[in-house]
Specification:
By secondary structure, this protein is of the alpha+beta class. It is about 35% helix and about 35% strand. The chain contains two helices and four strands. The chain has a four-stranded antiparallel beta sheet. The longest helix is centred in the last third of the chain and has 19 residues.
Length: about 80
């Protein structure tokens, strides 16, 4: 059985990168934080990892993962507002 990995590039605000996973590496750094690329086993793992950073993280690419996270956050908002 072959597993499809997913690469996700994201911006991580000054959060501290000591807790990066082996599958994540720093691509660049500026005054606002780090650009990190991670390679995950599947979309679910990638999305859970991104959500674990909270508001300190913004997905840059790919767009479909960014859209899935936006939909997940909207769904969560409905649950907590309802």
């Amino acid at each position: 059985m072959l597993f499809r990995s997913i690469k996700v590039k994201f911006h991580l605000k000054e959060f501290g990168v000591n807790g990066l996973e082996e599958c994540e590496h720093i691509m660049s750094y500026d005054d606002n934080g780090y650009i990190i690329q991670g390679e995950y086993h599947n979309d679910f793992v990638a999305i859970q990892r991104i959500l674990s950073f909270g508001a300190n993280c913004t997905v840059i690419a790919p767009k479909d993962i960014k859209n899935k996270i936006i939909e997940k956050l909207k769904s969560m908002k409905e649950v907590y507002n309802g």
